[in-house]
Specification:
Elements lengths: L1 H10 L2 H7 L13 H42 E2 L3 H7 L8 H12 L4 H10 L13 H25 L5 H7 L4 H12 L1 H17 L2 H6 L4 H11 L3 H27 L14 E2 L3 H32 L7 H32 L4 H7 L7 H14 L4 H5 L2 H24 L3 H9 L4 H12 L1 H17 L2 H6 L7 H10 L7 H24 L1
Parallel strand pairs: 1-2
Helix pairs in contact: 2-17, 3-7, 3-10, 3-14, 4-25, 5-7, 5-14, 7-10, 8-9, 10-13, 12-13, 13-17, 14-25, 15-19, 15-22, 17-19, 19-22, 22-25, 24-25
Length: 518
C-alpha cells in the first residue's frame, strides 16, 4: 500500500506540471507571445487593480458581517437567537454566481425593489439608486454570500474564549464595546484571518459572478486568453499570476490556523448576556438584515423567477440534471475511496503525513488555474482530444480540487478510533486490509457519508473548471445557469439555479445540526 501512496498523490499534481509545460517549449518564456505583450501593455494593470479592489472590498464586507454576527450570537441572548445561530450559515448554499444573477435581478431598473420605490415615490427613475452591475455590487454580493466562512470559525473562537474576559475588561473601566475591540477581537484574530482567507480564496477562484458583473480580473483574463485569443502560454502566465495571489492567502490562512490554539486560555464557556429594549432590537435587526440579504431575498428572487417561467420547463433541464448528477456522484464515490486510502495509509505509517498535507493544497487551486494546467499538460503530450470525448478529464479535475474536503472528513473520523482497537484486531489475526474492512469502515459510515456529500455539492456548484474541461454537448446545471444569465434569460435560469441551491442545503443542514447541539 505504501508504495502506491506517493505515486498516486503525485498523479494529482500533474496540473502543476502543466503550468510549467509551456516553458519546456523552445521560446516559451515570459515575453514569447504577442498576446501576453498586449495584455501586459493594455489590460494586465486593470486585472491586478480590479482583483485587489475586489478582495479588499470583500475582505472588509465579510469581516463586518462575519465578526459582527458571530459576536452578537455568541455573546448575547435576544429574541430569535436560536434561529440565527444556524440560519446565518444558509448563504453558503447559494453559489456566488447565482447570488450575482439574483442580486442584479432584484436591484436593476425593472426589478421589484426599484419598481416598488418608483411607485411609492411617484418618480419615473431613481437617479440616486446605485448601479447593481458594478464593482460595489460585486463586493456587496460576494460579502453576503461568503461571510459564513468568517462567521463559523469566529463564532467558535468567541465561544471558546475565557468567560471572564469581558468582566476583566469592565473592572479596568472599559465599556463592553471597548473590551471587545481591545481584548476579545485581538485574541480571535487568527480565527478571523482564517475565515477571511477562505472567503477571499473563493473570490479569486470565481469566474461566473465577476464576468456577469463585467469586472476584469485574472479569472476572466484567463478565459479570454485561452478561448478568445487561443494563446495557451498567455493563459498559463495569467494563471500563474492568479496562483500567486492564492498562494499568499493560502499561507496566511495556514499560519492563522496554526495559531488558533492561542485564541483562548480557558475552556469555560461564557454565559450569554440578555439584551433588552433598543439593544435587543439592534441585535435582531443586524442578524435579521444579514439573513434577509444573504438568503431570504435570493430565495424569494429564485421563486419569483420560477413563477414567471411557469410550467414551461426547458427540455434540456433533464440532461443538465443527469449530467450534473453523473459527474457529482462519480467524483464523490472516487474521492471517498481515495480519502480512505490516503488517510488509512497515513494512520499505518505516520511518515507519510506530508502526503495528506500536500493533497490539501488542491482545494486552494482556483478552477480556472486547475483547468489551464490540465489543458496545458494534455496539449504537451498531444492528448487534448481526450477532453472532447470523455468526461474522465473533468472528473480528474474535480478530484484534484475537492479531494481535500473529503480527506479532512475521513481523517476526523479515523482520529476518533483509538489505536488500541487496531492492536486488538491485529492480535486476533486480522491483516491491515481486514482491519480496515471489518473495523474502520463500519465505524466510519457517518464520516464517509459526510465526505461524499460535501464533494457532491462542491462538484454540483463548480463552474470555471467545468466550462473549460467539459466534453462537447455536456452541460451541467452550473454551466446552463451561467449561459442563460449571459444571454439575459434570467427567468429560465431559475430552475437550474434553484436545484443547485436545494442540493447545497444538505451540508448546510448538517452544519446547522452540529451548531444546534453545541
Amino acid at each position: 500500500m505504501n508504495r502506491i501512496v506517493v505515486p498516486l498523490a503525485l498523479l494529482l499534481f500533474l496540473p502543476l506540471f502543466g503550468l510549467a509545460a509551456p516553458f519546456l517549449f523552445p521560446g516559451g518564456d515570459l515575453s514569447a507571445t504577442g498576446t501576453l505583450s498586449h495584455l501586459w501593455n493594455f489590460v494586465l494593470g486593470g486585472y491586478i487593480s480590479s482583483t485587489l479592489v475586489l478582495i479588499l472590498g470583500v475582505g472588509v464586507g465579510v469581516f463586518i458581517l462575519g465578526v459582527g454576527n458571530a459576536w452578537i450570537v455568541a455573546s448575547y441572548d435576544f429574541p430569535g437567537k436560536r434561529v440565527f445561530e444556524w440560519a446565518l450559515i444558509l448563504p453558503l448554499a447559494v453559489p456566488t454566481y447565482v447570488m450575482a444573477y439574483l442580486f442584479v435581478d432584484l436591484l436593476q431598473f425593472s426589478g421589484p425593489i426599484q419598481s416598488a420605490l418608483r411607485t411609492l415615490l411617484g418618480m419615473d427613475s431613481l437617479w440616486f439608486f446605485p448601479d447593481p452591475r458594478s464593482m460595489s455590487g460585486a463586493i456587496w454580493s460576494f460579502s453576503f454570500c461568503l461571510f459564513p466562512y468568517v462567521y463559523l470559525i469566529t463564532r467558535t473562537a468567541f465561544l471558546e474564549r475565557s468567560g471572564r474576559l469581558i468582566e476583566a475588561s469592565e473592572t479596568l473601566g472599559y465599556s463592553p464595546l471597548q473590551g471587545f475591540v481591545k481584548l476579545v477581537l485581538p485574541m480571535a484574530r487568527p480565527a478571523i484571518f482564517a475565515g477571511m482567507a477562505l472567503a477571499l480564496m473563493e473570490v479569486l477562484a470565481d469566474f461566473g459572478a465577476v464576468s456577469y458583473f463585467g469586472i476584469q480580473t485574472f479569472a476572466t483574463g484567463i478565459f479570454k486568453a485561452w478561448l478568445s485569443f487561443g494563446d495557451r502560454v498567455a493563459a498559463v502566465q495569467l494563471a500563474l499570476g492568479l496562483l500567486s495571489f492564492v498562494l499568499l492567502i493560502f499561507f496566511i490562512e495556514q499560519s492563522s490556523r496554526s495559531k488558533l490554539r492561542y485564541a483562548s486560555s480557558s475552556q469555560s464557556r461564557p454565559l450569554a448576556k440578555p439584551l433588552h429594549g433598543r439593544a435587543a432590537i439592534f441585535a435582531f435587526a443586524f442578524c435579521g438584515g444579514t439573513l434577509l440579504c444573504g438568503f431570504l431575498l435570493p430565495a424569494f428572487a429564485l421563486l419569483q423567477l420560477l413563477f414567471k417561467q411557469g410550467l414551461n420547463i426547458d427540455i434540456r433541464y433533464l440532461d443538465w440534471l443527469s449530467n450534473s448528477l453523473l459527474v457529482s456522484i462519480l467524483t464523490a464515490l472516487i474521492s471517498v475511496v481515495l480519502a480512505v486510502f490516503f488517510a488509512y495509509s497515513v494512520r499505518m505509517n505516520s511518515r507519510l503525513s506530508w502526503v495528506n498535507r500536500l493533497l490539501g493544497f488542491g482545494y486552494a487551486l482556483p478552477g480556472a488555474v486547475l483547468a489551464i494546467g490540465i489543458l496545458s499538460f494534455l496539449e504537451f503530450f498531444h492528448l487534448a482530444w481526450w477532453m472532447s470525448v470523455s468526461m474522465l478529464v473533468l472528473v480528474y479535475a474535480y478530484l484534484v480540487r475537492f479531494l481535500s474536503s473529503s480527506l479532512q472528513s475521513v481523517e476526523a473520523g479515523l482520529s476518533r478510533i483509538t489505536p488500541s482497537m487496531d492492536g486488538s484486531a491485529a492480535l486476533l489475526g486480522l491483516s491491515r486490509m481486514q482491519i480496515l474492512k471489518r473495523v474502520h469502515i463500519p465505524l466510519l459510515k457517518r464520516s464517509l457519508i459526510t465526505a461524499g456529500l460535501f464533494v457532491f455539492v462542491d462538484v454540483m456548484k463548480e463552474l470555471p473548471a467545468t466550462l473549460l474541461l467539459r466534453p462537447f454537448n455536456f452541460d451541467t446545471l452550473a454551466v446552463a445557469a451561467y449561459q442563460l444569465a449571459a444571454d439575459e434569460r434570467l427567468a429560465e435560469l431559475a430552475l437550474p439555479s434553484l436545484t443547485i441551491v436545494l442540493v447545497g442545503l444538505f451540508p448546510v443542514f448538517l452544519l446547522s445540526r452540529v451548531i444546534a447541539k453545541s
